Amino acid sequence: MSNGLYQVDFERSSLRVLAGRIVINHLTLKPNYTVFNQLKRAGKAPNNLYTLSVDQIVFKHIHPFKLYFKNEAEVDEITISQPKIEAVYQELHNHDLPDSGKKTYYERIAGTIKSLHIRQILLENINLRYQENVNQHIQIRHFKEIDVKATDLLIDANSQNDKSRFNFCKDITVIFNNYKGETPSKSYQYQAKSLTFSSSKENIKLVDAVFMPQKLAVQKLKPNVDFSFKTDSIQINQFDYQSFISYR
Q1: In this structure, what is the dihedral angle of CA atoms 64, 69, 70, 76, given to the nearest 10 degrees?
Q2: What digits encode the pLDDT tens for the residues 170-219?
C-alpha cells in the first residue's frame, strides 16, 4: 500500500480461523530510506515520515467465508495497543503532488479483493513524538495518552468519492488525554483534561481548559499584561481538519 516506502516486521503471530481472530505481537514499521531518497530526488517524497512500534495488534471477528466466497475482506474490530509513533515533518513541497500514474488505494487492492471493510479501529494509549524541521529549525513535541477510534472504514470502487467519509472512514475521533503545552515564547502554559476532535462532527472540544502564565515568566512580564483563564469546556465548530493538515 505504501509502494515500498515502508517496511514491516513482527516477532510472532497467531491465527484462530474458526474464531476469526488474528494476534500480531511486537510489530514495527520503518521507512525505507533508499526509496524515500529516490522519491525525494524525483520530487515525489511526502512531507512526513513515520516510525511505528506496537506491542500487540488484535483482529477480531474476521469473516473468512465472506473473503473466500465473495472476495470481500471484512473485520469487525482491530485493536492496536500501546503504539509508539515518531513522525518527522519537513516541507519538501507545499502543493499537491502530481498523481499521474499513481494508483488509488482501491486500485491497489482491486487485483486481490473487491473491498476492504473494517467496522472499528481502536488505537489505545498512543505515545507520539513529533519533530518539525522548518527553515533549519527543529522543534520537537511529545504527546502521551492519545486514543483514536476510526469507525466504518471502507475501501471499494465508490468510497474514494464519498464526501461523507474522512480518510475512508465515516468518523475518526481523536482524544488527547491530559493535554498540556506552552506557547512558543514559553511565557504561558495551557492544559486540558481532554482535547477531542471528531471528523464527522467537524469540531474540537476541550474539557477543563486552563491558560495561565508560567511561574518563572511572571516576573519578567510587565505589570498588567499577564492574564489567565479557566473554563469547563471550549468547543470549536466547523473545523476543517483537512485544510489544517494540508501538505503535512
Answers
A1: -20
A2: 999 999 999 988 887 778 889 999 999 999 999 999 999 998 887 654 55
Map out the domains of the chain as residue ranges.
Answer: 6-244
Contact between 92 and 45 (Cβ < 8 Å): yes
C-alpha span between 22 and 238 (Å, rounded): 38
Q: 117 has which bridge partners?
A: 74, 154
Q: Where are the beta strands (DSSP E) in 135-163?
A: 137-155
Cell numbers found for residue 226: 499577564
Beta pairing class for 84-90 and 115-134: parallel
Q: Are 165 and 159 in contact (CB under 8 A)?
A: yes
Reduced to 3 states, what is the DSSP secondary structure of residue 217? helix
Taking the CB of residue 161, how many other CB atoms lie within 10 A of it?
A: 8
pTM over 0.90: no
- Cβ neighbours of residue 191 closer than 8 Å, sequence gap 6 or more: 178, 179, 180, 181, 209, 210
